[in-house]
UniProtKB/TrEMBL annotation:
Annotated organism of origin: Macleaya cordata (Five-seeded plume-poppy)
Protein name per its UniProtKB record: Cytochrome P450
Keywords: Heme, Iron, Metal-binding, Monooxygenase, Oxidoreductase
Family: Belongs to the cytochrome P450 family.
Gene3D superfamilies assigned to the protein according to its UniProt record, in alphabetical order: Cytochrome P450
Length: 408
């Protein structure tokens, strides 16, 4: 589901990285410096918001499937969304520290009013998300009045033909639509409050994690050009140069898969998983853990432990070649956690990261900004393991892909 949205957004990312179309038509293919952190953040947010609400808040796209056709109104909405997100990120760093340090917590919460700010921001977020819900509700009511159920459902968007017979854009099912249709049958369970919660969790858990993984992976590839070359060779052999990578190719690209898994081993986006709680008394590594204890699993330490991994600080995708896709190597490798509270977005994340990285490797040549300096791999602070220095890189269209790229 939603594979067209993901393909469309990845294409649009490649177009922006290439620069103006005329530069390709003119055979101009100098390297240019690009900001990869914001590229990946915008990609994941656009994908997520289009799946959730049919909205695209970064980069203009006149074709978006959207009720608000007026650009000023849409620009205003996009600005509000970006501002809320920026404030939420800024505050979550401050309050995370406060959660673990009693003094800072007291100072932050009561002296600087961080708690008040959190409440104010939550109200703003709720208001924004409620507006999205109302817009989709109005649209669903309108389309159920004006069309047959088959036309208005439109759930499977793997259909390439976006136009209905009148040439008008056909509305596609969004996640909010699915939740609203469940609400009709079970209103006490699928309340608006609950739907706002789902939207919030999808944005907070599903965007930075995938974007961060892509940024670490590209950083590793820039520091290991032989690995990048090997991935390019695999894609050329399996996909060719007449079309771009699509999601159904990913199964035929085991080396690309190994690159992603190796990145997640070295730089897991959830290094401490979510806090878990022991439902029964148990013993772990000789320690008695009473029932009801909060447990933080240091998956980063496990995945980088020299007793478990050969040369853990070396980027070696080859260590996963031939390993069954999805294998967790026992519990040595758990970038998505495990069990009932394991990450429900694993499948989506692997598709988005695979498609984006595969396309970047297939369509563009890559270099470090300073040839002599390796990309700085220092980890920054924050629970999702961000890079300390946002990644900048140099890219240009691949010579043997110019034909295809000029048609994107
Ligand atoms: C590379 C990308 C991602 C990584 C590395 C990642 C990692 C994780 C980890 C480690 C957890 C905690 C699991 C545990 O404690 O056992 C988690 C939870 C979660 N993830 Fe992801 N995630 C990613 C992408 C996504 C995406 C794309 C979505 C949504 C579409 C998502 C939604 C969630 C949710 C809702 C939870 C909470 C599950 C619960 O508490 O029951 N994640 N993720």
């Amino acid at each position: 589901m939603f594979s067209n949205i993901r393909a469309d957004e990845v294409r649009s990312m490649i177009r922006r990285l290439i620069g103006s179309r005329s530069s390709i038509d003119g055979g101009y293919y100098e390297y240019r410096t690009v900001d990869m952190k914001s590229t990946f953040t915008e990609l994941t947010l656009n994908i997520m918001m289009r799946m959730i609400a049919g909205k695209r808040y970064y980069g203009r796209d006149d074709d978006q499937l959207e009720e608000v056709r007026d650009h000023d109104e849409l620009d205003h909405e996009a600005r509000r969304f970006r501002e809320i997100l920026k404030d939420t990120m800024a505050l979550s760093v401050a309050t995370n520290i406060g959660d673990f340090n009693g003094v800072l917590r007291w100072v932050g919460y009561y002296f600087f009013g961080a708690e008040k700010e959190m409440v104010r921001l939550k109200e703003k977020r709720d208001e924004f998300m409620q507006e999205l819900i109302e817009q989709r509700r109005r649209l669903l009511t309108k389309s159920s009045r004006s069309s047959s159920p088959e036309e208005s459902s439109g759930g499977d968007d793997d259909d390439d033909d976006d136009d209905d017979q009148g040439g008008r854009k056909r509305e596609k099912m969004t996640m909010i639509d699915v939740l609203l249709s469940l609400q009709r049958n079970e209103p006490d369970c699928y309340t608006d409050h609950m739907i706002r919660g789902v939207i919030g969790v999808l944005i907070s858990a599903g965007t930075d994690t995938s974007a961060g993984t892509m940024e670490w992976a590209m950083s590793l590839l820039l520091n290991n050009p032989d690995v990048l070359k090997k991935a390019q060779t695999e894609i050329d052999a399996q996909v060719g140069r007449d079309r771009t990578v699509n999601e159904s190719d990913l199964i035929k690209l085991p080396y690309l898969h190994a690159i992603i898994i190796e990145t997640l081993r070295m730089y897991p986006a959830g290094p401490l998983l979510s806090p878990h709680e022991s439902s029964e008394e148990c013993t772990i590594g000789g320690f008695r853990i009473p029932r009801g204890t909060m447990l933080l699993v240091n998956v980063w330490a496990i995945q980088n432990d020299p007793e478990l991994w050969d040369e853990p600080s070396k980027f070696k995708p080859e260590r996963f070649e031939g390993v069954e896709g999805g294998s967790r190597e026992g519990f040595k490798l758990m970038p998505f956690g495990s069990g009932r509270r394991g990450c429900p977005g694993e499948g989506l994340a692997m598709r988005v990261v695979g498609l984006a990285l595969g396309s970047l490797i297939q369509c563009l040549d890559w270099e470090r900004v300073n040839w002599d300096d390796m990309v700085d791999m220092t980890e920054g602070s924050g629970l999702a393991l961000p890079k300390a220095q946002p990644l900048e890189a140099m890219c240009r269209p691949r010579l043997n892909m110019l034909n295809l790229l000029s048609q994107l």
